[in-house]
Design a protein that fits this description.
T4SS_GSP_E_ATPase; Beta-Lactamase; ATP hydrolysis activity; P-loop_NTPase; Rossmann fold; 21% strand; elongated; CpaF family protein
Length: 438
């Protein structure tokens, strides 16, 4: 092997693929392949992927031998595999897209790719030849869903064919080249029992949440980005009675509910002049005419909060949603703020009464520094007192020193929701019982 080449490393990718030599050889071999494909014409489009793999291997070997390039068999195979993915898949990120352990793929220009595994970000040895190469791959991802990405439309946020989500932004809005975020979703959504096994919450909380959903309590899942809100909402929906009709509303469809009767609605962005846009508020209004038993709002982030609160207050019990907030109290403040932005005309006291009557429980979730995704607290909304929405914390997470020492500490306070009047409170924790006067 040529002395300038770097040997393979077992680091999730080949160190050889990050070298300039690899990029140069791949680019030259790609041009050779394009000439050969041009000769084949329409015949190439009918080839299966294995047939394309064989063609690429043969042509790359011919090219390498003809140009006397110093590649060993392993490096030759690496170039062939890379070019096959270039022609039939998504190039350098093909393997990441196929890896079930990868949750997010974050691309910051052609030379910087990060992935999230188990809630933790790590840089990977994946490179694009240049920003034009990266942009070509992104457009190939967008092609099946009919979305464009160019100077006239430099941002895109879309649902992928496989149910994932892509967000991309390019120059002139992005200074250092295309920035791409790909969120992947499991083909088999996690069930509540799976979340217990993963340590997201304990069996006691599982039982209480199951009863809350079956009793048609209205629930908000609150948390930050990538904290597990969607996964928890998916799991909670599986507790709903199979005979119920569930309607979901999302900006970009991410929910995959394990339920037999689900109607999925998705907002539509406007055209370049803003025309034709359909937002979550319009979808929520229409949903009320669709005979829903439950309404699930993928993320409450705008004026649709008014329609959601009205629906929860007018007979659509058992509705659920997620919201970006750092604590249950912050969640309530954010609902007030969004209602104000949505044009709420009543008094502050009236709005707080509506919120308190609509929401039964707030489940706060978070991602800990070591990547663990956990339910941090379970809080019940009990009403309004002294013009403030009253809440009571039923349990909270004590993270301990790690997964082996963490535990959920129950306050011993009984849930006051009339729907849960038959649910007994868990035994009080000695450490918190005195603090709460129970």
């Amino acid at each position: 092997m040529h002395s300038n080449f770097i040997s393979f490393a077992d680091d999730g990718g080949s160190a050889f693929t990050t070298t300039r030599e690899f990029m140069d050889i791949k680019a030259r071999a790609y041009e050779h392949l394009l000439s050969r494909i041009e000769e084949l014409g329409s015949e190439f489009t009918r080839l299966s992927r294995p047939a394309v793999q064989r063609l690429v291997s043969t042509e790359v070997e011919r090219f390498v031998l003809g140009n006397n390039l110093p590649l060993n068999q392993e490096e030759l195979r690496t170039v062939s595999d890379s070019l096959t993915k270039e022609l039939t898949g998504f190039g350098p990120i093909e393997d990441l897209l196929q890896d079930p352990a990868v949750e997010d793929i974050l691309i910051n220009g052609c030379n910087s790719v990060y992935v999230s595994r188990g809630g933790k970000l790590q840089k990977v040895a994946v490179r694009f030849a240049d920003n034009a190469h990266l942009l070509r791959i992104v457009r190939r991802i967008l092609a099946p869903i009919g979305r464009r990405l160019d100077e006239s439309s430099p941002m895109v946020d879309a649902r992928l064919v496989d149910g994932g989500r892509i967000n991309a932004i390019i120059e002139p809005l992005s200074i250092d080249g295309p920035v791409v975020s790909i969120r992947k979703f499991r083909k088999d959504p996690l069930k509540p029992s799976d979340l217990v096994a993963l340590g997201s919450f304990d069996q006691r909380m599982h039982d209480l949440l199951e009863q809350a959903v079956k009793a048609r309590c209205n629930i908000l899942v609150s948390g930050g980005t990538s904290s597990g809100k969607t996964s928890l909402l998916n799991a909670l929906a599986s507790f709903a009675t199979p005979s119920e009709r569930v309607v979901t509303i999302e900006d970009t469809a991410e929910l995959s509910l394990n339920h037999p009767h689900v109607v999925r609605l998705e907002t539509r962005p406007g055209s370049y002049d803003g025309g034709g846009a359909v937002g979550p508020r319009e979808l929520l209004r229409n949903t009320l005419r669709m005979r829903p038993d439950r309404i699930i709002v993928g993320e409450v982030r705008g004026a649709e909060v008014l329609e959601m609160l009205q629906a929860m207050n007018t007979g659509h019990d058992g509705s659920m949603g997620t919201i970006h907030a750092s604590s249950p109290r912050e969640c309530l403040y954010r609902l007030e703020m969004l209602a104000g932005f949505g044009g709420y005309q009543g008094s502050e006291a009236s709005l707080r009464r509506q919120i308190a009557n609509a929401i039964d429980f707030i489940i706060q979730v978070g991602r800990l520094p070591d990547g663990r995704r956990r339910v941090l607290s379970l809080t019940e909304v009990t009403g309004v007192g002294d013009a403030i929405i009253a809440t009571q914390e039923l349990c909270r997470l004590d993270p301990g020193e790690g997964a082996d020492t963490e535990r959920w500490v129950w306050t011993g306070i009984r849930a006051h929701s009339p729907r849960l009047s038959a649910v007994a409170a868990p035994p009080a924790s000695p450490s918190l019982g005195d603090a709460f006067g129970v």
